[in-house]
């Protein structure tokens, strides 16, 4: 019997592409919508400077199970020279409970979060969408752009973050990588005005995007709010838009909608649907020139399905290190 497969980030990079992650995440949304998943809402431990989240999941039809342990410490990059987000994923054999794999979850988290926006954009943006506005210029902005480039024919993008050098470097590297113009702009308004698709990737606790800046027909991927009191979009914008979520339990607790829900301004009846239900055809997606918003909190099923593909490919290619934890 093989031991537990250990996979580090550099090995995972060689095993999977963003297109494959987008496909895996779409599969995960479908499984969740079809009630093929046992997945409690993520649990939080709150520290003075950050938090720790535990995310378990079991997919019945494919017999895939696992748990992700992930932190969010926003001050890490500047103060500790560590990433804001770090994660470890354990895959478990549902029949025996044996730990099949322990792998870096930091890259998987970055990729599958970008992929979630890619899937949402595929189903909710206008088919002719070609301009993109990006708020934030960190690691998550990079994987958002990677994923959106898989589902859109992007002609032009604009990026804004508070640090001039960061947004300028992001724009330069992205232009070189993708071959279309990515422009660093000086305000959030400039980045989102007249954009067909907008993505927000910040940890802001004060709304950054005003309703008056967003044109009819725009699709917004709200990716940054992932804990109570975080909010990137003005409540007025939420109230005038068609809101699609990944999970009511998670979104109402810590997603983009959590603040107006806590204030009792936004109610469950104001939410149009879960993205998985749109994908499988149980609910409608975009209708005309309405503004659509995808509130993403991240689902454990996305991690487990993606990690399962990585594990199988690693075994096929003989990549990784076997370790016997129970000897």
Automatic annotation (TrEMBL):
SUPFAM superfamilies: NAD(P)-binding Rossmann-fold domains. It comes from the Archaea. GO terms for cellular component: cytoplasm. Pfam families: OCD_Mu_crystall (PF02423). GO terms for biological process: alanine metabolic process. Keywords: NAD, Nucleotide-binding, Oxidoreductase. It catalyses: L-alanine + NAD(+) + H2O = pyruvate + NH4(+) + NADH + H(+). InterPro entries: Ala_DH_archaeglobus, AlaDH_arch-typ, NAD(P)-bd_dom_sf, ODC_Mu_crystall, ODC_N. GO terms for molecular function: alanine dehydrogenase activity; NAD binding. NAD(+) binds at residues 112, 139-140, 224-226, 230, 296. Its EC number is 1.4.1.1. The active site is at 68 (proton donor/acceptor). Catalyzes the NAD(+)-dependent oxidative deamination of L-alanine to pyruvate, and the reverse reaction, the reductive amination of pyruvate. HAMAP family: AlaDH_arch. Belongs to the ornithine cyclodeaminase/mu-crystallin family. Archaeal alanine dehydrogenase subfamily. This is Alanine dehydrogenase. The lineage of its organism: Archaea, Methanobacteriati, Methanobacteriota, Methanomada group, Methanobacteria.
């Amino acid at each position: 019997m093989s031991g537990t497969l250990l996979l580090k980030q550099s090995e995972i990079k060689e095993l999977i592409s963003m297109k494959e992650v987008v496909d895996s995440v779409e599969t995960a949304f479908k499984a969740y919508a079809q009630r093929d998943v046992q997945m409690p809402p993520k649990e939080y431990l709150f520290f003075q400077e950050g938090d720790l989240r535990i995310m378990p999941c079991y997919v019945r039809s494919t017999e895939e199970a696992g748990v992700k342990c992930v932190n969010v410490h926003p001050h890490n990059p500047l103060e500790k020279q560590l990433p804001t987000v770090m994660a470890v994923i354990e895959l478990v054999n549902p029949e025996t409970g044996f730990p099949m794999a322990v792998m870096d979850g930091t890259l998987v988290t970055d990729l599958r979060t970008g992929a979630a926006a890619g899937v949402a954009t595929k189903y909710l943006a206008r088919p002719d969408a070609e301009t993109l506005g990006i708020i934030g210029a960190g690691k998550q902005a990079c994987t958002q752009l990677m994923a959106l480039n898989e589902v859109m024919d992007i002609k032009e993008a604009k990026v804004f973050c508070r640090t001039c050098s960061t947004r300028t470097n992001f724009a330069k590297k992205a232009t070189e990588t993708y071959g279309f113009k990515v422009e660093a702009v000086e305000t959030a308004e400039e980045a989102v005005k007249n954009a067909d698709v907008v993505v927000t990737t910040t940890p802001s606790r004060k709304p950054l995007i005003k309703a008056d800046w967003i044109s009819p027909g725009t699709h917004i991927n709200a990716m940054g709010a992932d804990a109570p009191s975080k909010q990137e979009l003005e409540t007025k914008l939420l109230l005038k838009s068609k809101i699609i979520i990944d999970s009511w339990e998670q979104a109402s607790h810590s997603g983009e909608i959590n603040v107006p829900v806590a204030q009792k301004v936004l109610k469950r009846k104001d939410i149009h649907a879960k993205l998985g239900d749109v994908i499988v055809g149980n609910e409608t997606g975009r209708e005309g020139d309405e503004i659509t918003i995808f509130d993403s909190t991240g689902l454990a099923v996305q991690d487990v399905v993606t990690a399962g593909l990585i594990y199988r490919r690693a075994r096929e290619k003989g990549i990784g290190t076997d370790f016997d934890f129970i000897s």
